[in-house]
């Protein structure tokens, strides 16, 4: 079973959204773009336990917390504004198909839409498949003064006119939907609370335990006072004082201590799974283990669940990279891709992003409450193998930001951010580029810039380029740069090493070369013992920078020099970049306006 469409109206930070899916889906985007909200929306419709809460939703589950529309006329009651989440499911199991036969509709795989009335003749496989459309509607009940939510069949031919048929809970449990919230799931994964992973495993296996009756009986017979005799006089004194106001006819002592409320629900919350992870360590509560251990063990539980229901498990998982090393991140991603029927994943990690194909990766954006998505594979410029090759080396960071600063080599990739930091230190009014969402990207070669610029621009990012001058650059190549970048600087030098050695003061270059020689880092550069003339210094510096591009020498030079010694071409370019990201207005502290400062 798979989700092919998700529609949202008035839910949390999403005023409206309609997203289409093709199997496994990685959702990426900047913070607060709506990734978690989409997972929550799926859970609202498909999760077996979400609606069991009381209340199942609250004020802040409505867009901008608006759940009542103002009265149209004075004296009239305000009207509830509903929230609505709808999903379309395909590849239903035979059991679900049989139980929901009257609610079945048809989905056109090629056109990615529902067939409408009068299109029965078009319902032919393999291009058209059966589907099930479900929706959860939530609203504020004015009369009851409470929030309510319920899931229905969107197609309800047997329901009264204007009504929908509720989705029975046993059918909802067959969807096999699991939502793992980042960090929040681990601490209760192995509790017995309803909806925990251990509870899901027990229910999936059909385990009916006598644990509750036996445990309650054992706890009732536990005599705490026998092990703490100093408590008995205090309890008896309390009984005597209570007897002045309350008749106590119970046989024996009227007060008693227990370690639990002796109810099933309280035991679900208090029974704790203990774990020993090393030979020299005693058992500790599961939630007290290291975060990485918790998340890795959660993966083990997930694999257990997937093995129990291999044909129906759908996972929604937030940020699997949290507190786990890269190799475990890759294992989690590979597991989700190979062991589940469908996985929805949110991530900021290049080690997770690189495991998903561009056609499986959705870049989300939001404007005025409208969430839209774009497949990375729809962005022109890069082949799939190039995307996977560069995902770990800068593509991921740029995709999650607002702008990409594309350079042609590793030297510029190290040096320009160093220059930017110096400028930010010098001028406190500049908004730091990392806060602004501008990331540097190494295109790894002359002439590679346009294809990456085209890719980033197609994803809606601002594109900026800094590249070497070429006196006889073909007109077609120049046109590609112009079409691919919002801001571009083709500097006058043949290479960045030439720029630095030509524009920086000769004395500063010589001081740096001397430092390299004294530290033993210069290798075969051949830095002379005696200071040469200015032309010799600049030639030696150019040779040094060109022979050790990956050593970060130019970046170190920028960090050691005075601000006014930075190359003018570099600072002029970065000023253009900073101009694209003006700082937010300053917040006036209370009392400043009146000069009442301390």
From TrEMBL:
Entry's transmembrane regions: none
Domain Endonuclease GajA/Old nuclease/RecF-like AAA residues, every copy = 1-58, 229-353
Q: Which residue ranges does the record assign to the OLD protein-like TOPRIM domain? A: 402-468
What InterPro entries would the database entry show?
AAA_GajA/Old/RecF-like (IPR041685), Bact_Antivir_Def_Nuclease (IPR051396), P-loop_NTPase (IPR027417), TOPRIM_OLD (IPR034139)
Q: Do you know which Gene3D superfamilies this protein is assigned to?
A: P-loop containing nucleotide triphosphate hydrolases (3.40.50.300)
The protein, known as: AAA family ATPase
Species source reads Pelomonas cellulosilytica
